Amino acid sequence: MKTNFNELVSELATILRGGVTYRRFGTAGWYTEFQGCSARDWHNREQKKYPLHPAIVKALESDHRPTDWHLLTLEWPHVSETDSTRLAYTRDDRAGEADRQVITTVGKYLTRHFTTMPDHEVRNLVALYAAGESCKFVHTMAEMLYHLHRGPTSCMVSRREIRCDDGELRHPYQAYDPKYGWHMAVRTENDDTVGRALCVGKYFVRSYKKTGGHSYSDERLEAWLVSQGYTHLHQYPQGTELAYYTTSDEFLAPFIDGDEKRVSIGGGTVEIDENGDYVCNNTDGTPEGGERESCSDCGDSFDAGDGYWVGIYEDSQVCSDCNDNNYNYAYSRRGHQYYIPNDNTIEVNGDYYDMDYLSDNEIVELADGEYASMGDCVLINEDWYLSDDDEVCFAEDVEEYCLKDDCWQCEGSNIWYTNETAALMDADGNRYHADHAPEQETIKE
Q1: Which position among 107, 160, 315, 356 has the lowest Cβ density within 10 Å, counted as fewest Cβ atoms?
Q2: What is the pLDDT of residues 303-353, one digit of tens each?
Q3: Domain extents for the chain?
Q4: For 444, which DSSP code?
């Protein structure tokens, strides 16, 4: 059974301030008896002034046991009066009686008392409780637009409004209608919107933090969202609905954050749909697409103009994935290049060639089954060989390339001759051409 450390700390805190009472039954009936040990006045003072720091309360609820919960209770960690992002605690009785507190970071204190807590959990607690009560949700379009325009910079902050077919002027953000579950998490400081995140259901895709320039993710707001049970996704869930307002440019389309920006129209709403006909990728309130093609290989759809025409007649169109995985841009008929299926191409010196049109590109098959450019090869006995192949030589007597197996090499000149040309041989078995034989009696025909 998990130990409830918050309850233990609360009970010990009651003892330290001298507030423990007992109900006992005696001869005269029930009566109240107070604790026998003396209270710590300084601790009573601290408890009345400050609640336990919320990050510590949260840590005590975690699965990580504090190293010494008695010491933690005695130190009574709380939010610092001078800096709300830091923590203050009383080191010992002597410091408590002198009303002296140590100020430190939330992370350092957590690390000292919760030694088994991983670094990422410490960071989340620090981010969460440095934000404090400045985080909240807003659920009306008026509030969402208010915080959008006064908060961090993003592509949707423009005040551009689009005239819809019903005559109303609307900001593209109004497609995120709260009636479909859309709402916004905001973080404020001194009444200034410094962070925001668009949410739907219990999900968010990204957050924005005011920095004076490019808006980075707001770690504090994201930690707060996670503490509220929200999940950080890379894209909004399939089927998530947006409001459908028709315009002269199809419909009112916001820029959708995340990996999936494709949508479809159906049932009077715009729906996030990985196979949808439109893409919400613009900042001017207009969608992209409307025309879709179908891949002749896998059947998936893609935007018109994004496909690849394949084959020597370029009469089939495939998606980019199929083209990347199944085709090579190869030299083919009459030396022109086309996207040719991988299994019908060969590679020579870094270029691909269509096997049905090798002769059009002067590519030949070698005797060993490999392929090469005709200019680098020689034809011997109706078979092709690389001219610098170790099996090939240039025979001086016939002035042709021949196989070394059909030739011999002069020891005196290193010149090759066909076996049709006679060789002189010395006593050691070395062969010589008559023009290069040494003058000695041992050489014979």
Answers
A1: 315
A2: 777 899 999 999 899 999 999 999 999 999 999 999 999 999 999 999 999
A3: 5-21+38-117, 390-436
A4: B
Angle between helix axes 219-227 and 119-131 (nearest 10 degrees) is 100
On whether the CB atoms of residues 267 and 231 are closer than 8 A, the answer is no
Whole-model pTM above 0.85? no
Residue 12 carries which side chain, given as an amino acid letter? L
Both tokens assigned to 261 = 């920006």
Element (H, E) at 13: helix 5-16
What is the Cα–Cα distance from 204 to 137, expressed in whole angstroms? Answer: 12
Q: Is 397 helix (H, G, I), strand (E, B) or coil?
A: coil
Over the stretch 134-181, which tens digit does the pLDDT of each residue have?
788 999 999 999 999 988 877 667 767 899 999 999 999 999 999 999
Contacts of 270 (CB under 8 A, 6+ apart): 175, 241, 242, 243, 244, 251, 253, 263, 264
Cβ-based neighbours of 266, under 8 Å, separated by 6 or more: none
Residues 6+ apart with CB under 8 A from 143: 184
Q: Which amino acid is at 222?
A: E
Amino acid at 312: I
Residue 131 pLDDT: 55
Beta strands in 35-147, from DSSP E residues, in sequence order: 78-79, 86-89, 102-105, 135-138
Write the DSSP string, 175-233: GS-GGGTEEEEEEEETTEEEEEEEEETTEEEEEEE--SSS-B--HHHHHHHHHTT-EE-
Please name which of 249, 247, 275 lies closest in space to residue 261, comparing C-alpha atoms. 275
Widest distance between CA atoms in the chain: 147
Tokens coding 195: 């962070």
